[in-house]
Amino acid sequence: MKKIYEDYGIIIMQGDNKYYIQYDAGELVDKIDIIEVSKENAEKAQIGEEEAYSVILQYQNLKK
Q1: Which three-class secondary structure state does DSSP give residue 39?
Q2: 60 vs 33: CA distance, rounded Å
Q3: pLDDT in tens, 13-58
Q4: Residue 51: CA atoms inside 13 Å, Cβ hemisphere, count?
Q5: Is residue 41 a contact partner of residue 56, using CB atoms and an 8 Å limit?
Q6: Separation of alpha carbons 10 and 25, rounded Å
Q7: DSSP 40
Q8: Distance (Å, rounded) from C-alpha 64 to C-alpha 57?
Q9: How far apart (Å, rounded) are the C-alpha atoms in residues 29 and 20?
Q10: The whole model's pTM is what?
C-alpha cells in the first residue's frame, strides 16, 4: 500500500484501487484501526479534521 496523505492523526493509504484510513481508535492505550473507505470519502477526509472524523464515524457505525 502507498501512503497518500498523513495529518491530524490519520493516514490515508491506497492499494489495489482501494482506499484505507488508519487511525488511533484507542482511548487510554493506542489501538490502531484500519478501515476501507470509498475514494470520495478518502478525498473528503483530506479536507480537514472534522471531515475526517465524520468519515471515520460513518464507517465505525457500519461495522456495528
Answers
A1: helix
A2: 10
A3: 999 999 999 999 877 888 899 999 999 999 999 999 999 999 999 9
A4: 10
A5: no
A6: 10
A7: H
A8: 11
A9: 22
A10: 0.87
